[in-house]
Write a structure and sequence with these properties.
143 residues; five-stranded mixed sheet; three-stranded antiparallel sheet; 45% strand
């Protein structure tokens, strides 16, 4: 129990350090034009899951561009485990949307702290379309 409390405190202290800003290229005013309002992993903000169980993520996005974002893709990767999932709305026409990703955590995974990296990006159809590149990292405790 003490280890879990310790990890939760460490996670809370590290969260502000692991978010990267959007790298907006092209037109724009330099603000975060694609905002990740929050990420729920297995419906938890500070997730702890068991080996051999499924991992699902709900990502809540806000489009603050002055125009639509075409071909937006979202990828979820745990680099240390080689686990990958990808999904996303092809066109982000509204101001808000949700993206759902899911995968399985193998039973052979060693217990410990891992990091899930979420990548957000698109391919421009025209040179004046908005280009989105964003990376967000979240901790994951596997028991």
């Amino acid at each position: 129990m003490k280890r879990i409390v310790f990890f939760m405190i460490m996670i809370m202290l590290m969260l502000p350090l692991v978010d990267a800003k959007v790298f907006h290229q092209g037109r724009g005013n330099g603000r975060d034009d694609l905002r990740v309002s929050h990420i729920l992993i297995n419906d938890q903000v500070f997730p702890t899951i068991r080996r051999g169980s499924s991992l699902s993520a709900r990502i809540f996005l806000e489009n603050t561009f002055d125009e639509n974002i075409d071909n937006l893709k979202v990828k979820m990767i745990i680099h240390d485990l080689g686990i990958y999932a990808s999904n996303g709305p092809d066109d982000f026409d509204g101001s808000r949307t949700q993206v759902h990703l899911s995968t399985e955590i193998p039973s052979w995974v060693a217990p410990g702290m891992y990091y899930i990296t979420f990548y957000f990006g698109n391919q421009r159809q025209r040179t004046d379309d908005p280009l989105v590149r964003k990376t967000v990292t979240r901790p994951l405790l596997i028991r």
